[in-house]
Amino acid sequence: MKNNNENNNKTNKKNMRMMMDIAYFVVLGFIFVTFVFGVSHNVVSGHSMDSTLQDGQRLMSTQFNNFVEEGDIVIATPEAMDGKRVIKRVIAMEGDTISFHDGVTKVNGVEIKEDYVFEDEEAVLDGEFVVPDGHVWIMGDNRNNSIDSRYIGPVSMDDIEGEVILSIIPFKFVK
Which residues pair with 106 in a beta bridge? Predict the structure, then answer.
């Protein structure tokens, strides 16, 4: 009986050691990825990106803004928002012409098809705007509950902190 207990104790100690080693390497991996690849952790606050992202959802994002393109979800701190961090989708890039007429959004004369927008957009703007050099036009997916470029204008690329790459909880890639 004593020999059986000793074997169980040895097995339990080995299992515990293995679990500690795995946890150690997961933490080291997280630190490595964070510092080498410039990845940061963010939490969604609010409902401007419903139904793509939900309030309280945890995200990972790159800390590079030079690869941002139309359709990407970005973390930004627009100057016009007094340093408030926002999560929005890039709708138009520098040099693009964005227009709003009767709730329809067009980029360079083409109506944008947005499967992620689930309700008709209330007409907040009417007109045409050219996105200046070094700027992007960002909007929340929940258009009727979003303070975005329709209110604050184009956002400087210098104010883009990075691109959202995946959701941690629940786990899924974000686009």
Answer: 99, 111
Active site residue 14: no
Q: Is 40 a catalytic residue?
A: no
E strands present in 12-103? 39-43, 58-62, 73-76, 86-92, 97-101
d(CA 105, CA 120): 11
Confidence of residue 3 (pLDDT cuts 50, 70, 90): low
Contacts of 87 (CB under 8 A, 6+ apart): 42, 44, 48, 49, 53, 59, 73, 74, 75, 76, 164
* Residue of 130, 88, 90 whose CA lies nearest to 109: 130
For residue 106, the Cα-to-chain-centroid distance in whole angstroms is 23
Let me know: does 116 contact 141? Beta carbons within 8 Å.
yes
- From the list 10, 13, 45, 48, the catalytic residue is 48
Calculate mean pLDDT across residues 50-66.
82
| Domains by residue range for the chain, with CATH | 39-173 (2.10.109.10)
* Sign of the CA dihedral running 26, 29, 34, 40: negative
- Which of 61, 88, 146, 149 does the annotation list as catalytic? 88
Looking at this protein, which amino acid is placed at residue 36? V
Lowest mean pLDDT among 50-54, 121-125, 162-166: 121-125
